[in-house]
Design goal:
The protein has 520 residues and is an alpha/beta fold. It folds into three domains: 5-104 and 175-207 and 236-436, Alpha-Beta Barrel (TIM Barrel); 109-161, Oligo-1,6-glucosidase, domain 2 (Alpha-Beta Complex), CATH 3.90.400.10; 447-519, Golgi alpha-mannosidase II (Immunoglobulin-like, Sandwich), CATH 2.60.40. 26% of the residues lie in helices and 16% in strands. It has helices spanning 5-8, 30-35, 37-43, 78-90, 109-116, 176-191, 239-252, 268-271, 289-292, 297-310, 329-333, 335-347, 375-379, 417-422, 427-440, 442-445; strands spanning 11-14, 47-50, 94-99, 128-129, 150-153, 158-161, 196-199, 259-262, 284-285, 318-320, 351-355, 448-453, 458-465, 468-475, 481-484, 491-494, 501-503, 506-509, 514-519. Helix 6 packs parallel to helix 7 and helix 12 (335-347) packs parallel to helix 15. It is globular, with a radius of gyration of 23 Å. Bound molecules: alpha-D-glucopyranose. Residues 60, 63, 100, 164, 200-201, 263, 324-325 line the site of alpha-D-glucopyranose.
């Protein structure tokens, strides 16, 4: 089988509002990203995925799209976009866009038409239902941001569905015109040179045809967020969603070397269905399990084993440690352990997706109450669900270096690129080393994986490709752990950037240390 770039490569997610501002308005933009292309080269990643940059009223910061075929002026122009693609490609960096199929903005002309009358030709492009006889919403579905997933529109006396904000009406993917329009937009971006799409909430795109209630969640606790009051069995993950994935794949396959990645939060057995019955669905349904996993060697051992076992033949795995919706890894496991997490991400079998700033050990930012802007926090407050803390501006220099103006979210600079470039053992330099190793050793990028043990909170696995065998040992604890390991003296990497103590076939891993050893 031919190896595709997205199999051996590493993807880096950019939240464009927060990466680099070029015009002093306090919000990152495309020219900003272009100006930082040499950073990616130096870091050693292969592709950038940029969260949505399409015209948007920004109620959900770009995940509410009002035109799928253009660029929001806050991020720049189509010319800026073309330049970014051209310059990224000149440096052999791929560009992945974030496509939002499930819903548009309520300001999208399609929705404006759809809501204007029941007879409008675009009425059926969205999901409209009559109220129950007492006037209440058609069923008990809850928006992921809290509150009912239905909003009543007095103009036509019906409710429309929205899995997220009321300003993000769900498109009706059972309508063939909707599909054709959306595929047409994807085609236009492919033609402009885009190397792939991350597909927003792909498992949401089709709802059960009879709109029956979702079952009540017996395990609901208020701290989880209101959406968890019900189990989303009927509002998500319908078999027809996989058909949509297959249609998108058929489109992508008409081009060379394009990738489709599905944002899907589901357990393994359901998740892997999105690879398609014949490997003809998305290339990679995102595997988010490391984000929620209990951070212990035996738990992670079990999780890797279950994931690998669930993959259909030929399906390519992938791993994610964080994104623009979830707490940052350094805040979840601590700065010292975040180095172990980085080693895990970059040495597991499958494509890693990094989140901007994690390579610095960036932590969740502190957001004073008056600066909270995320609707998730505003609508379901005080439960730690808000996403502003993980979207703070990229710290380039001790003074910020992100903008000349007032940043849209508070900037923290205690860890920043300039400082971290300067000392060898920084998180940034450790990431560079790991990325370079991954590039130099096909065993790490393409090799098979064999799990070996998880005793004393140390996870050990082997990666193998051709004649090359590497062994990875990760100490999940904050104590020294002495373990038996063959060829302990043939270490090629340590998160602490100096060799641990070895004696014969044993090595004493220091607290929060991970190592890579050559094996035979
Ligand atoms: C996805 C995005 C998230 C957004 C939501 C609605 O989960 O990652 O940021 O709010 O979809 O589009």
């Amino acid at each position: 089988m031919r190896t595709e770039w997205w199999q051996s490569g590493v993807i880096y997610q950019i939240y464009p509002r927060s990466f680099q501002d070029s015009n002093g308005d306090g919000i990152g933009d495309l020219d900003g990203i272009t100006s930082r292309l040499s950073y990616f080269e130096e870091l050693g990643i292969d592709a950038i995925w940029i969260s949505p940059i399409f015209p948007s009223p920004m109620k959900d910061f770009g995940y509410d799209v009002s035109n799928y075929d253009d660029i929001d002026p806050i991020f720049g122009s189509m010319k800026d976009f073309d330049r970014l693609i051209k310059e990224a490609h000149a440096r052999d960096i791929k560009v992945i866009l974030d496509f939002v199929p499930n819903h548009s903005s309520d300001q999208h002309p399609w929705f404006q038409e759809s809501k204007s009358s029941r007879e409008n030709p675009k009425r059926d492009w969205y999901i409209w239902r009559d109220p129950k006889s007492d006037g209440s919403p058609p069923n008990n579905w809850i928006s992921d941001f809290g509150g009912p997933a239905w909003t009543f529109d007095p103009t036509t006396n019906q409710y429309y569905s929205h899995a997220f904000l009321k300003e993000q009406p769900d498109l009706n993917w059972r309508n063939s015109h909707v599909r054709l329009e959306m595929y047409d937009s994807m085609r236009k971006w492919f033609n402009r040179g885009v190397d792939g799409f991350r597909l927003d909430v792909l498992w949401h795109v089709i709802k059960a045809q009879d709109f029956r209630d979702n079952p009540v969640n017996p395990d609901y606790k208020p701290h989880m967020g209101e959406m968890h009051k019900v189990l989303q069995l009927n509002s998500t993950d319908q078999p027809e969603a996989i058909e949509v994935a297959r249609e998108m794949r058929a489109l992508a396959d008409r081009y060379d070397g394009r990738v489709l990645i599905g944002e899907i939060y589901l357990p393994f057995e359901k998740l892997v269905k999105y690879y398609g019955p014949k490997q003809d669905g998305v290339h990679m349904p995102f595997n988010f399990t490391l984000i929620d996993a209990e951070w212990k060697a035996d738990t992670i051992f079990d999780l890797i084993a279950r994931y690998e076992a669930s993959l259909p033949p030929g399906a390519w795995p992938n791993w994610v440690l964080g994104n623009h919706d979830r707490p940052r890894i350094a805040s979840r496991v601590g700065l010292a352990q975040a180095r172990v997490a980085a080693t895990l991400l970059l040495t597991l079998r499958g494509t890693p997706t990094m989140y901007y700033g994690d390579e610095l050990g960036m932590e969740d930012g502190v957001i004073p109450l008056e600066r909270v802007v995320d609707p998730r926090e505003i609508l379901d407050p005080g439960k730690g669900l808000g996403r502003d803390p993980v979207r703070t501006p990229m710290p380039w220099t001790p003074d910020g270096g992100f903008t000349e103006g007032e940043p849209w979210l508070p900037q923290h600079t205690d860890r920043n690129v300039e400082d971290e470039m300067q000392f060898d053992s920084s998180m940034l330099n450790m990431y560079k080393l790991l990325l370079a190793l991954r590039r130099a050793h096909p065993a790490l990028s393409l090799g098979s994986i064999a799990l070996e043990s998880a005793e004393s909170n140390v996870l050990i696995y082997r990666r193998e490709h051709g004649d090359e065998i590497l062994r990875v040992a990760l100490n999940f604890s904050d104590r020294d752990q002495t373990i038996a390991i063959p060829n302990a003296d043939r270490m090629i990497f340590s998160t602490l950037l100096s060799a641990p103590e070895t004696s014969g076939e044993t090595v004493t891993l220091r607290a929060n240390e991970a190592i890579i050893i050559e094996a035979d």
